[in-house]
Amino acid sequence: xxxxxxxxxxxxxxxxxxxxxxxxxxxxxxxxxxxxxxxxxxxxxxxxxxxxxxxxxxxxxxxxxxxxxxxxxxxxxxxxxxxxxxxxxxxxxxxxxxxxxxxxxxxxxxxxxxxxxxxxxxxxxxxxxxxxxxxxxxxxxxxxxxxxxxxxxxxxxxxxxxxxxxxxxxxxxxxxxxxxxxxxxxxxxxxxxxxxxxxxxxxxxxxxxxxxxxxxxxxxxxxxxxxxxxxxxxxxxxxxxxxxxxxxxxxxxxxxxxxxxxxxxxxxxxxxxxxxxxxxxxxxxxxxxxxxxxxxxxxxxxxxxxxxxxxxxxxxxxxxxxxxxxxxxxxxxxxxxxxxxxxxxxxxxxxxxxxxxxxxxxxxxxxxxxxx
Length: 372
Description:
By secondary structure, the protein is an alpha/beta fold. The protein is about 45% helix and about 15% strand.
């Protein structure tokens, strides 16, 4: 599974494992070769795949092997990244055994609940139960100030602490990889390279993005759109792109796991497009900034809360026509565009070393002040 939360947990664990014994508890994925080759320890629990989704439902309370593994470890702290099956087990275990407990708030859960239940009453009940669990934590962490406010509105009994997301990508200096990509896809230098990286899921507002591309095509704006990722919406996307004669202007790469290769795509791109109103603090916008590539967001997007429009990124009105017009306008002022590229790197690029050092301060504080 590759998504933002998985990426955060992986990077936290990698950095922490250089000075501590780190365990990550996660769903099983069947017999996959080399699945657990990580610098930290992984303990898996029984799970089943959710139909039509990449995610799995875990059953830690019905997994004797999982429980046995937990009980043999003396934890100094437990950090929860999801309040559902495995996370809820962690919350219960920490409270029962007087272990300091911290949780990071990654998602706008209410939007998830409404999307899947189509019922506000059910969603409100689900949020109430979720916050009952999270309020048992000794400290809550939000990925930006807007997410902190959202969870306070959900019912958090204290304002969450803010620790931003980062990236493991390094600025790519060698142009060879980007030149190879330009040649591979026969991208002309007059074409602007537009990029999306993430799950190909309707909730990411991908229909809006394709509608904007249709308008760009009608305005005879020369571009090459690259979609990196996979997901349940991919087949529909390709049909819509084909139906609107965008197939020659669009590239689907599938998932890219190699981080150096991914860096080259960000470096190749002139603009990162991220019209999601669902995401809270997407890692991909930090990844883009690592290669001096600015992002175009939509207004009212929580993930755009670190952006100063026209300074270190761009924000458009929530209209495909305006979004397309903004893309064209961005490239009409070369000097301003280049300054914004530099500012995106200076203002938004953060490394996991810096963020994990900040996180360790919270760990130490909770451990040292935990009453035995």
